[in-house]
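hiii, so i know i said id send this last week but things got crazy w the move. better late than never?? heres the sequnce for the chain we talked about at the cafe, plus the structure i predicted for it. fair warning i was half asleep when i ran it
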Amino acid sequence: MKSVPVRLVPLGVALILLSGAPGAVAQSYLGDVGYTALQRLLGAAIPTGAGVNVMQIEASLVSSTDPGYPIYAPDVSSPMFAGKSFSFPGAPSTTVSSHATSVGGVFYGAGSIASGITSIAVYNAADWLQGIDTTSAAAPVNGSRVANDSWVGSGGTAADTGIILRLVDRETQLDQLIQVVGMPYDSSPLLASAYNVISVGETAGLNSYGTQAVDSVYVAGRAAPDIVAPMSTTSDATPVVAAAAALLVGVAHTAGAALSTGSTYVSGVGTLYDAEQAVTIKAALMAGADRVTNNASTTANITDYGTNGHLTGNGLDDRYGAGQLDVLNSYQIIAAGEQHSMEGGSISGGYIGAQGFDYVAAFGGSGGSNTTATYKFNATANSELAACLTWNIGVANNATLATTLHHLALELYDVTTHSVVASSASGVDNTQNLWVNLVAGDSYDMLVQSNESGNFSWPYALAWNITPAPVPLPATGWLLLSALGSVGLLARGAQVRG
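okay and structure toks below
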Protein backbone atom coordinates (compact mmCIF):
# COMPACT_ATOMS: atom_id res chain seq x y z
CA MET A 1 0.00 0.00 0.00
CA LYS A 2 1.41 3.39 -0.93
CA SER A 3 2.53 5.93 1.65
CA VAL A 4 -0.13 8.57 2.21
CA PRO A 5 0.90 12.24 2.57
CA VAL A 6 -0.86 14.17 5.32
CA ARG A 7 -1.26 17.66 6.74
CA LEU A 8 -1.58 17.44 10.54
CA VAL A 9 -2.22 20.18 13.08
CA PRO A 10 -2.48 19.87 16.90
CA LEU A 11 -5.88 20.96 18.20
CA GLY A 12 -5.99 23.85 20.63
CA VAL A 13 -2.24 24.48 20.74
CA ALA A 14 -2.79 27.89 22.30
CA LEU A 15 -4.81 26.46 25.20
CA ILE A 16 -2.93 25.03 28.15
CA LEU A 17 -5.26 23.27 30.57
CA LEU A 18 -2.82 23.69 33.40
CA SER A 19 -3.55 25.73 36.51
CA GLY A 20 -0.42 27.45 37.75
CA ALA A 21 2.72 25.43 37.15
CA PRO A 22 2.72 22.60 34.60
CA GLY A 23 1.46 19.42 36.24
CA ALA A 24 -1.60 20.82 37.99
CA VAL A 25 -4.56 19.84 35.85
CA ALA A 26 -7.72 21.90 36.27
CA GLN A 27 -10.36 19.57 37.70
CA SER A 28 -13.42 21.78 38.00
CA TYR A 29 -15.11 19.88 35.18
CA LEU A 30 -15.23 16.60 37.13
CA GLY A 31 -18.55 17.39 38.78
CA ASP A 32 -20.12 18.44 35.48
CA VAL A 33 -19.32 15.11 33.79
CA GLY A 34 -20.70 12.97 36.61
CA TYR A 35 -17.36 11.89 38.05
CA THR A 36 -17.89 13.49 41.46
CA ALA A 37 -21.26 11.74 41.73
CA LEU A 38 -19.56 8.46 40.78
CA GLN A 39 -17.04 9.03 43.56
CA ARG A 40 -19.86 9.55 46.05
CA LEU A 41 -21.53 6.36 44.87
CA LEU A 42 -18.49 4.08 44.90
CA GLY A 43 -16.06 5.72 47.33
CA ALA A 44 -12.72 3.95 47.47
CA ALA A 45 -13.99 1.32 45.02
CA ILE A 46 -14.20 3.83 42.16
CA PRO A 47 -12.58 2.44 38.99
CA THR A 48 -9.48 4.25 37.73
CA GLY A 49 -8.68 2.67 34.37
CA ALA A 50 -5.94 0.60 36.01
CA GLY A 51 -4.66 -2.12 33.71
CA VAL A 52 -5.95 -0.44 30.54
CA ASN A 53 -3.15 0.33 28.08
CA VAL A 54 -3.67 3.45 25.98
CA MET A 55 -2.21 5.46 23.13
CA GLN A 56 -1.75 9.21 22.87
CA ILE A 57 -1.41 10.31 19.27
CA GLU A 58 -0.15 13.86 18.75
CA ALA A 59 0.53 16.00 15.70
CA SER A 60 4.02 17.42 15.84
CA LEU A 61 4.29 21.08 16.77
CA VAL A 62 6.48 21.57 13.70
CA SER A 63 5.49 21.13 10.08
CA SER A 64 4.86 17.59 8.89
CA THR A 65 7.02 18.51 5.89
CA ASP A 66 10.00 18.56 8.25
CA PRO A 67 9.62 15.15 9.93
CA GLY A 68 13.21 15.04 11.13
CA TYR A 69 12.38 17.35 14.01
CA PRO A 70 9.14 16.18 15.61
CA ILE A 71 7.87 17.73 18.83
CA TYR A 72 5.07 15.60 20.26
CA ALA A 73 6.03 14.12 23.65
CA PRO A 74 4.44 15.02 26.98
CA ASP A 75 6.71 16.14 29.80
CA VAL A 76 7.24 12.72 31.39
CA SER A 77 9.02 14.35 34.35
CA SER A 78 5.85 16.18 35.41
CA PRO A 79 4.63 15.17 38.90
CA MET A 80 1.18 14.40 37.46
CA PHE A 81 2.78 11.53 35.50
CA ALA A 82 4.52 9.91 38.46
CA GLY A 83 4.39 6.13 38.18
CA LYS A 84 3.52 6.17 34.47
CA SER A 85 5.38 4.11 31.89
CA PHE A 86 5.81 5.76 28.49
CA SER A 87 6.91 4.26 25.19
CA PHE A 88 7.62 6.13 21.97
CA PRO A 89 7.35 3.67 19.07
CA GLY A 90 8.21 6.20 16.34
CA ALA A 91 10.91 8.78 15.82
CA PRO A 92 11.87 10.37 19.14
CA SER A 93 10.49 13.76 20.07
CA THR A 94 13.22 16.40 20.05
CA THR A 95 11.71 18.28 22.98
CA VAL A 96 8.61 18.44 25.16
CA SER A 97 5.24 19.45 23.68
CA SER A 98 3.11 21.67 25.94
CA HIS A 99 0.06 20.49 24.00
CA ALA A 100 0.86 16.82 24.61
CA THR A 101 1.51 17.54 28.29
CA SER A 102 -1.85 19.24 28.71
CA VAL A 103 -3.75 16.51 26.84
CA GLY A 104 -1.95 13.76 28.73
CA GLY A 105 -2.77 15.37 32.05
CA VAL A 106 -6.48 15.27 31.28
CA PHE A 107 -6.32 11.77 29.76
CA TYR A 108 -4.27 9.82 32.34
CA GLY A 109 -2.67 12.33 34.73
CA ALA A 110 -2.94 12.25 38.51
CA GLY A 111 -6.15 14.29 38.50
CA SER A 112 -7.90 12.64 35.57
CA ILE A 113 -10.96 10.39 35.46
CA ALA A 114 -8.61 7.51 34.62
CA SER A 115 -5.62 8.25 36.81
CA GLY A 116 -4.92 4.51 37.19
CA ILE A 117 -3.63 4.24 33.62
CA THR A 118 0.09 3.51 33.77
CA SER A 119 1.06 2.28 30.28
CA ILE A 120 0.99 4.92 27.55
CA ALA A 121 2.34 4.64 24.01
CA VAL A 122 2.89 8.11 22.56
CA TYR A 123 3.02 8.57 18.80
CA ASN A 124 3.76 11.36 16.41
CA ALA A 125 0.56 11.19 14.32
CA ALA A 126 2.48 10.96 11.05
CA ASP A 127 4.38 7.92 12.34
CA TRP A 128 1.21 6.27 13.60
CA LEU A 129 -0.56 6.73 10.26
CA GLN A 130 2.40 5.21 8.44
CA GLY A 131 2.32 2.31 10.90
CA ILE A 132 -1.28 1.38 10.10
CA ASP A 133 -0.77 2.00 6.35
CA THR A 134 -0.15 -1.67 5.58
CA THR A 135 -1.93 -4.37 3.63
CA SER A 136 -3.16 -6.00 6.85
CA ALA A 137 -4.03 -4.24 10.09
CA ALA A 138 -1.44 -4.57 12.82
CA ALA A 139 -2.57 -4.94 16.42
CA PRO A 140 -2.26 -1.76 18.49
CA VAL A 141 1.08 -1.44 20.25
CA ASN A 142 1.08 -3.06 23.69
CA GLY A 143 -2.51 -4.22 23.20
CA SER A 144 -3.79 -0.67 23.67
CA ARG A 145 -7.56 -0.32 24.03
CA VAL A 146 -8.10 3.47 23.88
CA ALA A 147 -6.41 6.08 21.72
CA ASN A 148 -6.71 9.86 22.09
CA ASP A 149 -6.38 12.00 18.95
CA SER A 150 -6.42 15.73 19.75
CA TRP A 151 -5.34 16.78 16.27
CA VAL A 152 -6.87 17.49 12.88
CA GLY A 153 -5.68 17.44 9.31
CA SER A 154 -6.20 16.07 5.82
CA GLY A 155 -4.52 13.91 3.24
CA GLY A 156 -2.58 15.38 0.36
CA THR A 157 -5.59 14.64 -1.85
CA ALA A 158 -9.18 13.57 -1.27
CA ALA A 159 -8.14 10.03 -2.24
CA ASP A 160 -5.39 10.09 0.40
CA THR A 161 -7.87 11.31 2.99
CA GLY A 162 -10.25 8.48 2.09
CA ILE A 163 -7.46 5.93 2.56
CA ILE A 164 -6.58 7.34 5.98
CA LEU A 165 -10.20 7.25 7.14
CA ARG A 166 -10.53 3.64 5.99
CA LEU A 167 -7.33 2.65 7.80
CA VAL A 168 -8.53 4.28 11.00
CA ASP A 169 -11.96 2.62 10.79
CA ARG A 170 -10.34 -0.74 10.03
CA GLU A 171 -8.22 -0.46 13.19
CA THR A 172 -11.35 -0.22 15.35
CA GLN A 173 -13.28 -2.89 13.48
CA LEU A 174 -10.52 -5.50 13.64
CA ASP A 175 -8.56 -4.69 16.79
CA GLN A 176 -11.24 -3.01 18.95
CA LEU A 177 -9.14 0.12 19.39
CA ILE A 178 -11.49 2.77 20.79
CA GLN A 179 -10.37 5.93 19.01
CA VAL A 180 -11.55 9.18 20.59
CA VAL A 181 -11.02 12.13 18.25
CA GLY A 182 -11.50 15.87 18.44
CA MET A 183 -13.82 17.90 16.24
CA PRO A 184 -12.07 20.57 14.15
CA TYR A 185 -12.79 24.28 14.02
CA ASP A 186 -12.55 24.27 10.25
CA SER A 187 -13.32 21.82 7.44
CA SER A 188 -10.53 19.33 8.26
CA PRO A 189 -11.84 15.80 7.63
CA LEU A 190 -9.36 13.96 9.88
CA LEU A 191 -10.32 12.20 12.00
CA ALA A 192 -13.88 13.21 12.86
CA SER A 193 -15.21 12.12 9.45
CA ALA A 194 -14.43 8.48 10.22
CA TYR A 195 -17.32 6.18 11.12
CA ASN A 196 -15.94 3.99 13.89
CA VAL A 197 -14.41 6.70 16.07
CA ILE A 198 -16.00 8.61 18.96
CA SER A 199 -15.96 12.25 17.84
CA VAL A 200 -15.90 14.86 20.59
CA GLY A 201 -16.98 18.50 20.63
CA GLU A 202 -17.13 21.16 23.31
CA THR A 203 -20.32 21.91 25.20
CA ALA A 204 -20.20 25.53 24.01
CA GLY A 205 -20.70 24.20 20.47
CA LEU A 206 -18.13 26.53 18.92
CA ASN A 207 -16.39 23.80 16.94
CA SER A 208 -17.41 22.68 13.47
CA TYR A 209 -20.05 19.99 13.23
CA GLY A 210 -21.03 17.41 10.66
CA THR A 211 -18.68 15.27 8.60
CA GLN A 212 -16.83 16.53 5.53
CA ALA A 213 -17.19 15.41 1.91
CA VAL A 214 -14.36 13.05 1.02
CA ASP A 215 -15.72 10.43 -1.39
CA SER A 216 -18.84 8.36 -2.06
CA VAL A 217 -18.53 6.52 1.27
CA TYR A 218 -17.24 9.25 3.56
CA VAL A 219 -19.90 11.77 2.69
CA ALA A 220 -20.73 15.20 4.08
CA GLY A 221 -23.47 15.82 6.59
CA ARG A 222 -23.29 12.71 8.75
CA ALA A 223 -23.83 13.46 12.43
CA ALA A 224 -20.74 14.65 14.33
CA PRO A 225 -19.80 15.14 17.12
CA ASP A 226 -21.00 12.02 18.91
CA ILE A 227 -20.65 13.60 22.37
CA VAL A 228 -19.37 16.78 24.03
CA ALA A 229 -17.49 17.74 27.20
CA PRO A 230 -17.43 21.04 29.13
CA MET A 231 -13.94 22.17 28.12
CA SER A 232 -12.91 25.31 26.26
CA THR A 233 -11.44 23.48 23.24
CA THR A 234 -12.05 20.11 21.67
CA SER A 235 -8.35 19.41 22.18
CA ASP A 236 -9.08 19.11 25.89
CA ALA A 237 -12.64 17.81 25.65
CA THR A 238 -11.36 14.78 23.74
CA PRO A 239 -9.14 13.32 26.51
CA VAL A 240 -11.96 13.75 29.05
CA VAL A 241 -14.04 11.34 26.96
CA ALA A 242 -11.03 9.10 26.27
CA ALA A 243 -10.43 8.83 30.02
CA ALA A 244 -14.09 7.91 30.57
CA ALA A 245 -13.79 5.23 27.87
CA ALA A 246 -10.72 3.77 29.59
CA LEU A 247 -12.52 3.76 32.94
CA LEU A 248 -15.43 1.81 31.42
CA VAL A 249 -13.09 -0.64 29.67
CA GLY A 250 -11.42 -1.31 33.01
CA VAL A 251 -14.77 -1.97 34.68
CA ALA A 252 -15.91 -4.28 31.89
CA HIS A 253 -12.69 -6.26 31.63
CA THR A 254 -12.20 -6.70 35.37
CA ALA A 255 -15.78 -7.92 35.86
CA GLY A 256 -15.52 -10.27 32.89
CA ALA A 257 -18.35 -12.80 32.72
CA ALA A 258 -20.13 -11.15 35.65
CA LEU A 259 -21.28 -8.38 33.28
CA SER A 260 -20.98 -10.05 29.87
CA THR A 261 -22.49 -13.22 28.46
CA GLY A 262 -19.89 -13.60 25.72
CA SER A 263 -16.34 -12.75 24.72
CA THR A 264 -14.03 -12.75 21.73
CA TYR A 265 -10.28 -13.10 21.33
CA VAL A 266 -8.38 -10.45 19.39
CA SER A 267 -4.83 -11.32 18.41
CA GLY A 268 -2.35 -8.98 20.03
CA VAL A 269 -5.00 -7.61 22.39
CA GLY A 270 -6.41 -10.62 24.22
CA THR A 271 -9.82 -11.73 25.45
CA LEU A 272 -12.44 -8.99 25.18
CA TYR A 273 -15.78 -9.32 26.93
CA ASP A 274 -18.98 -8.03 25.35
CA ALA A 275 -19.10 -5.06 27.74
CA GLU A 276 -15.72 -3.78 26.54
CA GLN A 277 -16.23 -4.09 22.78
CA ALA A 278 -15.58 -0.78 21.03
CA VAL A 279 -19.22 -0.44 19.94
CA THR A 280 -20.47 -1.22 23.46
CA ILE A 281 -18.33 1.48 25.04
CA LYS A 282 -19.40 3.98 22.37
CA ALA A 283 -23.07 3.14 22.89
CA ALA A 284 -22.76 3.39 26.68
CA LEU A 285 -21.08 6.80 26.49
CA MET A 286 -23.71 8.16 24.12
CA ALA A 287 -26.75 6.67 25.88
CA GLY A 288 -25.46 8.00 29.19
CA ALA A 289 -24.87 11.55 27.98
CA ASP A 290 -26.84 14.49 29.40
CA ARG A 291 -29.15 16.27 26.95
CA VAL A 292 -29.66 19.08 29.47
CA THR A 293 -26.84 20.46 31.62
CA ASN A 294 -26.31 22.75 34.58
CA ASN A 295 -22.55 23.17 34.61
CA ALA A 296 -20.52 24.73 37.39
CA SER A 297 -17.17 24.85 35.57
CA THR A 298 -18.38 26.85 32.58
CA THR A 299 -21.26 29.08 31.54
CA ALA A 300 -21.76 26.87 28.49
CA ASN A 301 -24.83 24.64 28.87
CA ILE A 302 -27.18 22.55 26.78
CA THR A 303 -30.67 24.02 27.16
CA ASP A 304 -32.29 23.55 23.74
CA TYR A 305 -31.34 20.03 22.68
CA GLY A 306 -32.77 19.04 19.29
CA THR A 307 -34.79 22.21 18.78
CA ASN A 308 -34.92 24.78 15.96
CA GLY A 309 -33.86 22.38 13.23
CA HIS A 310 -30.83 20.99 15.04
CA LEU A 311 -32.05 17.38 15.25
CA THR A 312 -30.21 15.03 12.88
CA GLY A 313 -31.58 12.06 10.98
CA ASN A 314 -30.15 9.65 13.56
CA GLY A 315 -31.70 11.37 16.55
CA LEU A 316 -28.77 13.51 17.71
CA ASP A 317 -28.35 17.25 18.05
CA ASP A 318 -26.00 18.40 15.30
CA ARG A 319 -24.14 20.65 17.78
CA TYR A 320 -23.94 18.38 20.83
CA GLY A 321 -24.27 14.85 19.49
CA ALA A 322 -25.80 12.68 22.22
CA GLY A 323 -25.12 15.43 24.76
CA GLN A 324 -22.51 16.04 27.45
CA LEU A 325 -20.51 13.18 28.92
CA ASP A 326 -21.96 11.76 32.14
CA VAL A 327 -19.61 9.06 33.38
CA LEU A 328 -21.97 8.10 36.23
CA ASN A 329 -24.76 7.24 33.81
CA SER A 330 -22.40 5.39 31.48
CA TYR A 331 -20.88 3.44 34.37
CA GLN A 332 -24.35 2.40 35.52
CA ILE A 333 -25.19 1.22 32.00
CA ILE A 334 -22.15 -1.06 31.91
CA ALA A 335 -22.53 -2.14 35.55
CA ALA A 336 -26.16 -3.17 34.92
CA GLY A 337 -24.81 -5.96 32.73
CA GLU A 338 -25.66 -7.48 29.39
CA GLN A 339 -29.37 -8.10 28.76
CA HIS A 340 -30.60 -9.90 25.67
CA SER A 341 -33.57 -9.35 23.40
CA MET A 342 -36.59 -11.64 23.23
CA GLU A 343 -35.20 -13.16 20.02
CA GLY A 344 -31.64 -13.30 21.36
CA GLY A 345 -32.15 -15.97 24.00
CA SER A 346 -33.23 -13.79 26.90
CA ILE A 347 -34.21 -15.81 29.98
CA SER A 348 -36.55 -12.98 30.96
CA GLY A 349 -38.54 -13.04 27.74
CA GLY A 350 -36.79 -9.93 26.49
CA TYR A 351 -37.59 -7.74 29.50
CA ILE A 352 -34.80 -5.34 30.38
CA GLY A 353 -33.91 -3.16 33.36
CA ALA A 354 -33.72 0.61 33.57
CA GLN A 355 -30.07 0.58 32.46
CA GLY A 356 -28.06 -1.93 30.50
CA PHE A 357 -26.58 -3.00 27.19
CA ASP A 358 -26.57 -5.81 24.70
CA TYR A 359 -23.79 -6.82 22.31
CA VAL A 360 -25.01 -9.01 19.45
CA ALA A 361 -22.23 -10.67 17.46
CA ALA A 362 -24.40 -11.64 14.47
CA PHE A 363 -27.50 -9.81 13.22
CA GLY A 364 -29.11 -9.30 9.83
CA GLY A 365 -30.60 -12.61 8.69
CA SER A 366 -27.62 -14.54 7.37
CA GLY A 367 -26.57 -17.76 9.06
CA GLY A 368 -29.76 -17.95 11.05
CA SER A 369 -29.25 -14.56 12.72
CA ASN A 370 -32.20 -12.35 13.62
CA THR A 371 -33.50 -9.40 11.62
CA THR A 372 -35.44 -7.98 14.57
CA ALA A 373 -34.50 -7.78 18.23
CA THR A 374 -37.17 -6.84 20.79
CA TYR A 375 -36.31 -5.33 24.18
CA LYS A 376 -39.37 -5.07 26.43
CA PHE A 377 -39.99 -2.90 29.49
CA ASN A 378 -42.75 -1.27 31.53
CA ALA A 379 -42.70 2.38 32.56
CA THR A 380 -43.49 2.37 36.27
CA ALA A 381 -43.39 6.19 36.41
CA ASN A 382 -43.20 9.14 34.06
CA SER A 383 -39.62 8.90 32.87
CA GLU A 384 -37.37 9.40 29.88
CA LEU A 385 -35.42 6.95 27.74
CA ALA A 386 -32.07 7.60 26.12
CA ALA A 387 -30.86 4.80 23.87
CA CYS A 388 -28.01 4.38 21.39
CA LEU A 389 -27.59 1.66 18.77
CA THR A 390 -24.19 1.56 17.10
CA TRP A 391 -22.21 -0.68 14.78
CA ASN A 392 -18.98 -0.39 12.80
CA ILE A 393 -18.49 0.23 9.12
CA GLY A 394 -16.63 -2.74 7.68
CA VAL A 395 -13.28 -2.23 5.94
CA ALA A 396 -11.58 -5.08 4.11
CA ASN A 397 -8.34 -6.19 5.76
CA ASN A 398 -6.29 -6.04 2.58
CA ALA A 399 -4.97 -3.56 0.05
CA THR A 400 -8.40 -2.79 -1.44
CA LEU A 401 -9.88 -1.39 1.82
CA ALA A 402 -13.36 -2.03 0.38
CA THR A 403 -16.07 -0.75 2.72
CA THR A 404 -19.43 -2.15 3.81
CA LEU A 405 -21.95 0.01 5.67
CA HIS A 406 -24.97 -1.93 6.89
CA HIS A 407 -28.23 -0.19 7.74
CA LEU A 408 -30.00 -0.75 11.05
CA ALA A 409 -32.92 1.09 12.59
CA LEU A 410 -34.09 1.70 16.16
CA GLU A 411 -37.76 2.10 17.09
CA LEU A 412 -39.78 2.55 20.28
CA TYR A 413 -43.28 1.08 20.19
CA ASP A 414 -45.93 1.76 22.86
CA VAL A 415 -47.64 -1.60 23.32
CA THR A 416 -50.36 -0.03 25.47
CA THR A 417 -51.48 2.51 22.86
CA HIS A 418 -50.43 0.43 19.83
CA SER A 419 -48.38 3.28 18.39
CA VAL A 420 -44.83 4.03 17.30
CA VAL A 421 -43.50 6.61 19.74
CA ALA A 422 -40.12 7.29 18.16
CA SER A 423 -37.84 5.97 15.45
CA SER A 424 -34.34 6.56 14.15
CA ALA A 425 -33.46 5.18 10.74
CA SER A 426 -30.77 7.34 9.13
CA GLY A 427 -29.40 5.77 5.97
CA VAL A 428 -25.95 7.37 6.20
CA ASP A 429 -24.95 7.05 9.87
CA ASN A 430 -23.80 4.09 11.94
CA THR A 431 -25.59 5.10 15.13
CA GLN A 432 -29.33 5.43 15.77
CA ASN A 433 -30.52 7.28 18.86
CA LEU A 434 -33.69 7.86 20.87
CA TRP A 435 -34.49 10.43 23.56
CA VAL A 436 -38.16 10.36 24.50
CA ASN A 437 -40.58 10.66 27.40
CA LEU A 438 -42.27 7.52 28.73
CA VAL A 439 -45.78 7.42 30.18
CA ALA A 440 -46.32 5.81 33.58
CA GLY A 441 -48.15 2.51 33.28
CA ASP A 442 -47.44 1.95 29.58
CA SER A 443 -45.56 -1.05 28.22
CA TYR A 444 -42.94 -0.59 25.52
CA ASP A 445 -40.96 -2.55 22.95
CA MET A 446 -37.62 -1.14 21.83
CA LEU A 447 -36.85 -2.69 18.46
CA VAL A 448 -33.58 -3.10 16.59
CA GLN A 449 -34.38 -3.85 12.97
CA SER A 450 -32.53 -4.56 9.75
CA ASN A 451 -33.10 -1.72 7.31
CA GLU A 452 -31.82 -3.58 4.24
CA SER A 453 -33.57 -5.68 1.63
CA GLY A 454 -30.95 -8.45 1.67
CA ASN A 455 -29.54 -10.58 4.47
CA PHE A 456 -26.21 -10.00 6.18
CA SER A 457 -24.49 -10.89 9.44
CA TRP A 458 -22.96 -8.08 11.49
CA PRO A 459 -22.42 -7.11 15.15
CA TYR A 460 -24.14 -4.26 16.96
CA ALA A 461 -24.34 -2.84 20.47
CA LEU A 462 -27.37 -1.28 22.08
CA ALA A 463 -27.23 0.71 25.33
CA TRP A 464 -30.08 2.38 27.19
CA ASN A 465 -30.72 4.57 30.22
CA ILE A 466 -34.18 5.18 31.74
CA THR A 467 -34.30 7.98 34.29
CA PRO A 468 -37.03 9.90 36.13
CA ALA A 469 -38.55 12.59 33.95
CA PRO A 470 -37.63 16.19 34.77
CA VAL A 471 -40.29 18.41 36.29
CA PRO A 472 -42.17 19.62 33.21
CA LEU A 473 -42.70 23.20 32.23
CA PRO A 474 -46.27 24.14 31.24
CA ALA A 475 -45.88 22.88 27.67
CA THR A 476 -47.45 19.44 27.06
CA GLY A 477 -48.75 17.35 24.24
CA TRP A 478 -47.14 16.01 21.10
CA LEU A 479 -44.06 17.70 19.67
CA LEU A 480 -42.74 16.85 16.25
CA LEU A 481 -39.01 16.92 16.66
CA SER A 482 -37.86 15.92 13.20
CA ALA A 483 -39.04 14.82 9.80
CA LEU A 484 -36.10 14.28 7.50
CA GLY A 485 -37.28 12.51 4.36
CA SER A 486 -38.25 9.02 5.40
CA VAL A 487 -36.73 9.57 8.85
CA GLY A 488 -39.01 10.84 11.59
CA LEU A 489 -38.64 11.18 15.31
CA LEU A 490 -41.89 11.78 17.18
CA ALA A 491 -41.73 12.14 20.94
CA ARG A 492 -44.89 11.66 22.94
CA GLY A 493 -45.44 14.21 25.67
CA ALA A 494 -42.17 15.98 24.82
CA GLN A 495 -41.42 18.84 27.16
CA VAL A 496 -39.36 21.96 26.90
CA ARG A 497 -36.37 21.16 29.09
CA GLY A 498 -34.18 23.65 30.83
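btw Residues 6-284 form a domain with the Rossmann fold fold (CATH 3.40.50). thought thatd interest u
miss u guys!!
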